[in-house]
Amino acid sequence: MTTAAPTIALPALEPLDDAQRLERAVEFADRMARRRTVRDFANNAVPSAVIHECLRAAASAPSGANQQPWRFVAVADAAIKRRIREAAEAEEREFYQRRAPQQWLDALAPIGTDANKPFLETAPWLIAVFYERFGVDAQGAKVKRYYPHESVGIACGLLIAALHNAGLATLTHTPSPMAFLNDILVRPKNEMPYLLLVVGHPSAACRVPDIQRLPLEQVATFVGVPKG
Q: What one-character-per-residue DSSP string does 54-96 give?
């Protein structure tokens, strides 16, 4: 029988009144609303300390049974980035030429994507995110992971927000399949590639599609809002 973990007092929350909370919420929402996916990156360096702190924020995410099934590999090495680009573009060519149904290609057309992914080399950082399909204990036995996809998805959301908050641009890249990341980055077989996050500064000439997000009223519903 598993015993309950010891407890500690909740660290004190910052004392704010409702007006201050609203101000914080508006400021953060406005900052996140300016986030756009970027495909044209400058090759300006980004200090590893910034990436470290953003990953620290991501690793604070909640997870099923606190198993923390995320694994992050931050890549700045030019030779490894080139290998990742070559492998990713090979999969993307298969996608665009053979795998993708026409309906999917039609949905991508307004965004203007294709199999060429130069940003995988141009951007100063690639962050490969893996999830553990199962854990391995000290005796080498498999340990079940609970809600690994959901847990890692939350961590990725925090990571993107942290990077944007630090003044950086990102691109979520998901070539399929991504098993090449295990080979290139020498990851164990219990880890599955989840996301390849491209990180850096946008190029001076960067442009993004003129598309709009759905209004909040169309995606959020409030039930039982107190009056007054």
A: HHHHHTTS--GGG---EEEEEE--HHHHHHHHHHHHHHHHHII
- Span 102-151, pLDDT tens digits: 998 888 888 888 889 999 999 999 999 999 999 999 999 999 999 999 99
How many other CB atoms sit within 10 Å of the CB of residue 143?
Answer: 11
- Which residues make Cβ contacts (< 8 Å) with residue 200, sequence separation at least 6? 41, 42, 43, 44, 46, 122, 123, 124, 125, 168, 169
Q: Could you tell me which residues come within 8 angstroms of residue 183 by beta carbon, excluding any fewer than 6 positions away?
A: none
- Is the separation of the CB atoms in 128 and 193 below 8 Å? yes
Distances (CA, A) of 68 to 15, 114, 126, 148, 150: 29, 34, 21, 8, 11
Residue 109 DSSP class: G
User: Which residue from 46, 50, 49, 71 is spatially nearest to 185, judged by alpha carbons?
Assistant: 71
Put simply, whether the predicted model's pTM sits higher than 0.85 gets the answer: yes
CB of 84 closer than 8 Å to CB of 196: yes
Domains in the chain, CATH or no CATH each:
36-204 (3.40.109.10)
Q: Any bridge partners for residue 142, and if so which?
A: 136
In 3D, which of 95, 145, 98, 139 has the Cα closest to residue 115? 95
Alpha-helical (H) ranges within the chain are 18-33, 48-58, 78-94, 102-108, 119-122, 148-165, 180-185, 216-219
